[in-house]
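step: validate -> pass
step: tokenize input -> pass
step: predict -> running
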Amino acid sequence: MVSDKVSIHGTWASRWVFILAATGSAVGLGNIWKFPYMTGMYGGGAFVIMYLVCIFMVGLPIMLAETLIGRRGRQSPVNALRTLALESGASPRWSWAALMGMVAALLILSFYSVIAGWSLDYIIAMGDGQFEGISAEGAGAAFGTLTADPWRLTLWHTLFMLLTGVVIARGVVAGLERSLRIMMPLLFVLLLVLLGYSMTTGHFMQGFHFLFDFQPDKLLDGVLAAMGHAFFTLSVGVGSIMVYGAYMPKRASIGSTVLAVGILDTLVALTAGLALFPIVFAAGMEPGAGPGLMFVTLPVAFGNIAFGQVMGTLFFILVLVAAWTSSISMLEPAVAYLVERTRRSRVQVTSVLALLCWVVGMGTVLSFNVGAEAKFFVFTADGFQLFQWGAEGGRNFFDSIDYLTSRILLPLGGLAFVLFAGWVLKREAVREELAINNPLLFGLLYWLIRVVAPLGILIVFVAELMK
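step: predict -> pass
step: emit ->
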């Protein structure tokens, strides 16, 4: 019999709402600008197979661990870990891992909001026909003009944080659930429309071969990349999935639900590649990854093909929706925790935290223009300096926050959560939450949570630090 605790924040109407919420958290900018390119670069079908193995062995066990902890505790990640640790006879300091994850999520949101805000600018520019017939140099110059203007970046950063805060402030049912019931179907529809259009470009098979041609000689080349992306793509390590699990109905199957999220996340990433790369090839361009693909290459492609203005506008709406669904999952853990701790209203707590993220995000805004020369963590001949203006080495504010969160805090958070579920929670508690009667299947999943997933995270952690 599963835990009878009840979340004070509310409960999802069904397991499908959790699937929408968790998929929305997982599907973000990385699905659009990173995974498809990695697939083509690391051997197409060979990389897809390796990635699916890593998802099953590492990504999904971590998501299972977070979800079952969340539903077992029925509180914010910090309080859930504290309560469950005490019930298991362990130290309440395990809650520090959730506190670290909560801080990491807020830091990520601070710069994610800035980058996501670019899509708002591009929706207007694309819809206004500003990219029609544009060259690669022109698109690069337009992107450079955007990032060089701190006032323009501040406007979009502010608007995106407001969009995120409004959803969270309205609560689990009125805010999160209602918005996700609209945004996630919209995301799928927009993606399918773009996929249908890419089939008419005459280069669909070229994009298909780029993604799926099996190159066995590259099978091992992409192991670390596949493992790293399997960890980062599912939005684990910061408590977002844990807090969503706290709102999951009692009778919902955690195993099948998490599996559905993993499948949907992968399908979205692959469909994005099938939708976008034929458009890139149709414009006679080479595929790439990162912001350059989204804000330089694709505007050129859309600006030089039939119906590109309409399709490009739809694409950047898709980017906005994907970023929006991810951003709300980053803010929710901290809001839930402070509501529980202070007993203040969600509106008050959300306003304070959104403002905090906005202020920190201004560091990222300035990293692309007037503050580009401000460097942190500088190693020189004279030794180490935390900050130095105009240094040759070091990282700007944005790169420093990105490095701290993605390469240190996220892996450590994921490791702590999976170790807690596998080694601190009692075996019977895990069995009750997973509700798996088959002893062989439960034994396999328990082994993945206790042994394989922690080892996978450690490998990712070391590999990321060595980059």
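step: describe -> Residues 15-465 form a domain with the Amino acid/polyamine transporter I fold (CATH 1.20.1740).
step: cleanup -> pass
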